Amino acid sequence: MEQEFYRGLAPRVRALADKADPFTRRRLLDLAKRYDVKSGTSRSGAAERPLPVPRTTPAASSFSESGEA
């Protein structure tokens, strides 16, 4: 009975992870993996989507409008 509970909880946690920021997503996916272990099922890491690469913006000084080169 407990295994069925964790088996149902893991996909719900993964659905939440899809909508979360990268830090929370990583933690939720780790939690879902632990639920998989408790339920007796295992998922391969290849089925999970990788974390998105964070966007970086150039420093504000590179857009200086003072006319200096």
Return residue spans where pLDDT drops below 50 for at least 5 consecutive residues: none
Quickly count the helices. Answer: 2
Instruction: Please report the distance between the alpha carbons of the first and last residues.
Output: 70 Å
Count every beta strand, where a strand is a DSSP E run of 2 or more residues. Answer: 0
Q: How many strands, what sense, and barrel or not for the largest sheet?
A: none
Kindly estimate the percentage of residues that lie in beta strands according to DSSP. under 5%
- This entry's quaternary arrangement is single chain
Q: How much is the radius of gyration in Å?
A: 20 Å
In summary, what is this structure?
The chain has about 70 residues and is mostly helical. The protein has two helices and no strands.
